Queue: 2 jobs
Job 1
Amino acid sequence: MQYFAKVFPHPGHDHNSCVTDALKRAEAVCAYRGARLTSLRRDVLKQVWDSHNPIGAYDILNRLQRKGKTPAPITIYRTLDFLLKQGLVHRLATLNAYIGCGSAETPHDAQFLICNSCGVVAELNEPSIGQAIGHGASRADFHVNTSVVEVRGLCPGCYDN
């Protein structure tokens, strides 16, 4: 239980620091890869990191419009595609929404714990899960391109209440 409690943000954690660190890491990742983190890409990434809850493309668009920016929906989707390709965000298929990646520096299989009550999402980095999927797929002569595991339940904050 102790390990898993650490993947969720603690109540009262410094979320501004969380966002600032994510944006700094994104700049470093893009610089290392020779990719441009334009102001729009940075703004979209900031909206994704604004909370630990997933956010949809149109919600991002609405937030940016409230700040006086007027990108077209296709621009938001293209920006999200860029962020996905750089590993800076993940797409949660069951929610059709995006969440920031805390370990974009290294490619990894994505596994997510999604709280049914408060909506917070935590990313796991559990290599054995990816290995099990790869082993099962191999036995089925299936070639995996990408693997995203989404698990629903209750986070420690909601389970304890």
Note: Residues 1-5 have pLDDT under 50 and may be disordered.
Job 2
Amino acid sequence: MSAAPRRALGTLHATGIVVGAIIGVGIFLTPSKVAAVAGSPAAALGLWALGGLIALCGALSLAEVGARFPESGGQLLALQALLGPLAAFLYGWCLLVAIQTGVLVLIALFAAQNLSAVLGTAWSA
């Protein structure tokens, strides 16, 4: 009788999820723009690889913050400990008003563009 697999996410899993989410959004929203700016397929792939490397660095940085501040609210706690309560307060409000809101708007626009393609209606963003 074999032991049941452990139900836990490690650093590699969390890093893969973050990098995959960032690259996944970019793949669906901007491939034609990246290809147009790059000028060649090789350059476009190079830019995607560079973006993936930057996303990986961000994911690893946030993993380090999560390891140092394992309590709920790790980013805010880290900012408060490293830069003071004002920085944490301002980041919290920016997260609420602009950062998370902007992500939700992008997802809604992407969904609306795909829905308009399925329904055969005109849509411009």
Note: Helices lie at 11-29, 31-38, 41-68, 74-83, 85-119.
